[in-house]
Amino acid sequence: MKRHTIEPRPGWQQTVEEQGLIYPLTRFPDGSLRPYWDESAYYEFSLPEVEALEEVVEELHAMCLAAAAHIVEHDRFADLGITNPRLASRIATSWRRRAELPSIYGRFDLRYDGTGPAKMLEYNADTPTSLVEAASPQWFWMEERFPGADQWNSLHERLVDAWKRQAPLLPPGPLHFVHSESDELGEDLMTVAYLRETAQQAGIATEALSVEQIGWDRLSGRFVDGRLRFIRSCFKLYPWEWLTTDRFGPHVLNTLDNGGGSGTTCWIEPAWKMLLSNKALLAILWELYPGHPNLLAAYLDGPRELAAADGPGYVAKPLLGREGAGVTIHEPGTEPAAARAEREQPVCYQELAPLPDFDGNRVVLGAWVVEDEAAGLGIRESSGLITDEYARFLPHVIL
């Protein structure tokens, strides 16, 4: 794994926008605009590195499924902050009937520098973004800059094939693809639009909608779209923890399709994905697979030995945080006063493993899973140890 600098292509911004990346720039707090899509550098991998990472990702995915089964079997929903018994029951039913429910994709965030085993930082299996840039613009970048090279990127083909395989699980009628109008950058909009395109290529009839446009028909007890058609199936780029606690949350639980029932809505990703996108999963994985080379030590009841003066330090992560929100870093021996405030909300305490430094850039690998298979890679860089909304996306190549 190596980082190389390179001259960006002339007109790169227009090029990537035409390829679906309509948010190539990030506005910083001082009002300045800086590239989000950053092709002034790229990462090079060897084929053996990528093959080893693929094996790690698929093993981690299998371990996460085993952890989900453990949570359901041992009724450990409270560890995930899920204290509503009705919601827990719905998630458990969704898990037990998962073979009947469509489920498409997820993204692992990994710490990796090419010299040791990759370490799992978290798993976003419900609403992962950065998909468009990983699937499309970086592939076309490679074809233009490195003809004849390769890339860890079979995302498009695998997504289309996944929709084809799972189409029989969908109820009659169009599959609605929804995002939230609160998305100001257009990232959610384009992620949903891209996934809708892959579903259409698989032969599935689709409709576009925003979450805010979903209606509730009191007479039929059904969700409806703007044309008053029942929403029988819906892909939503909208977190389950929001969906179930919004004003219409009770209706979501009442009509949740956990296996083809009439008068229900089939949501994609399914409710059982709440088990995988919760940071408590990290602690449960460490409990089930202590010392695993691809895991970092993690706990729910406190940082334990991680906070000791001779320990590695730790990161406190809100169970449902996104894009680094609420994450705090604690060096060894700095536990008591600094951590007390965070404990007012549930957090997972994960071993501190600073992101690798490449020429002053901190890098995290986003490894994609489609169904149960590793499918591609997206790389984000940040200036600090926390990968936040100001991170940059860099392409990669296999040479």
Using brief descriptors, characterize the structure shown.
4-stranded parallel sheet, globular, 6-stranded antiparallel sheet, single chain, 399 residues, alpha+beta, 11 helices
Question: How would you describe this structure to a colleague?
Answer:
The strands form six sheets. Strands 5, 6, 17, 18, 19 and 20 form a six-stranded antiparallel β-sheet that branches. With 399 residues, the protein is α+β, with helices and mostly antiparallel strands. Helices cover 28% and strands 24% of the residues. It is globular and about 60 Å long. The N and C termini lie close together (10 Å).
Q: Output the radius of gyration.
A: 21 Å
Beta-strand proportion:
15-25%
Helix content: 25-40%
Mean pLDDT: 93
Oligomer: single chain
Distance between the termini: 10 Å
Q: How many strands in all?
A: 21
List the helices and strands and how they pair.
Blueprint: E1 2-5, H1 12-18, E2 25-27, E3 33-35, E4 41-45, H2 47-73, H3 85-96, E5 105-111, E6 119-124, H4 131-135, H5 137-145, H6 155-166, E7 175-179, H7 187-201, E8 206-210, E9 215-217, E10 222-224, E11 233-236, H8 240-243, H9 249-254, E12 266-268, H10 280-288, E13 298-299, E14 314-318, E15 328-330, H11 336-340, E16 347-351, E17 357-358, E18 361-370, E19 373-382, E20 392-394, E21 396-398
Parallel strand pairs: 4-21, 7-8, 7-11, 11-12
Antiparallel strand pairs: 1-4, 2-3, 5-6, 5-18, 9-10, 13-16, 14-15, 14-16, 17-18, 18-19, 19-20
